[in-house]
Design brief:
With 155 residues, this protein is mainly β. It has 2 helices and 13 strands; from the N terminus they run H-E-E-E-H-E-E-E-E-E-E-E-E-E-E. It has a 6-stranded mixed sheet with strand order 4-6-8-12-13-10, with no helix packed on it. A 4-stranded mixed sheet has the order 5-7-9-11, with no helix packed on it. It has a 3-stranded antiparallel sheet with strand order 1-2-3.
C-alpha cells in the first residue's frame, strides 16, 4: 500500500475530525486530524487495533437465559438465538466505545429482553425477532452506562 499523504488524510477526514488509519513507510499508523492537518499519534499497535475492528466474534448458540458479551472478544459480535434471552450490559467496556451485536433467531421467533442497557427516551424496545430474521443492535458506552443507539431487524 502506498504512503498516505497528510493532504489526502486531512481531506478524507475533514468532515469527521476523528481518528483514522493510514500507511506510512509501509507501516500501519493511527492519525488524528488537527487544525494544522493530520498528525501521527500512535504507530506501535495501529495494525492490531485495525484487525480487532474488522473481526466478527461468533458467540455461538445462546440457549436461554442471560447473555453477557465480553468486549475482550471485539466490538462486533454475533450469536444464534436458540431461545429467549436477556441481553446484559457487555463486560470490559471503555468510555466512548461503540459495539455492534447481530442476533439471528433460530428455530422460531425469539425474544430479547435488555438488562443494564438504556433505551432512548420516548422509545419502546421491541425485542421480538421473527424466525430466521437478524436483529442488529448498536450500543454506545458513555463511561457510566450502555445506551441503545440502533435496533433494526432484517428478514
Amino acid at each position: 500500500m502506498p504512503n498516505s499523504t497528510l493532504a489526502s488524510l486531512t481531506a478524507a477526514t475533514a468532515a469527521t475530525g476523528g481518528l483514522f488509519y493510514g500507511t506510512q513507510s509501509g507501516a500501519d499508523r493511527k492519525f488524528t486530524l488537527t487544525s494544522t492537518g493530520a498528525s501521527i499519534i500512535e504507530a506501535d499497535n495501529a495494525g492490531t487495533v485495525r484487525s480487532l475492528l474488522n473481526v466478527v466474534y461468533d458467540y455461538g448458540n445462546t440457549g436461554t437465559g442471560t447473555v453477557t458479551l465480553n468486549l475482550n472478544n471485539g466490538i462486533t459480535q454475533k450469536a444464534a438465538m436458540t431461545g429467549n434471552i436477556t441481553l446484559a450490559a457487555p463486560s470490559n467496556p471503555v468510555a466512548g466505545m461503540e459495539m455492534s451485536v447481530q442476533l439471528t433467531a433460530s428455530g422460531g421467533a425469539r425474544t430479547i429482553t435488555l438488562s443494564g442497557i438504556t433505551v432512548p427516551t420516548g422509545v419502546t424496545f421491541t425485542g421480538t425477532v421473527s424466525s430466521g430474521s437478524v436483529r442488529r443492535l448498536k450500543l454506545y458506552y458513555s463511561g457510566s452506562a450502555w445506551l441503545l443507539t440502533s435496533n433494526l431487524e432484517f428478514a
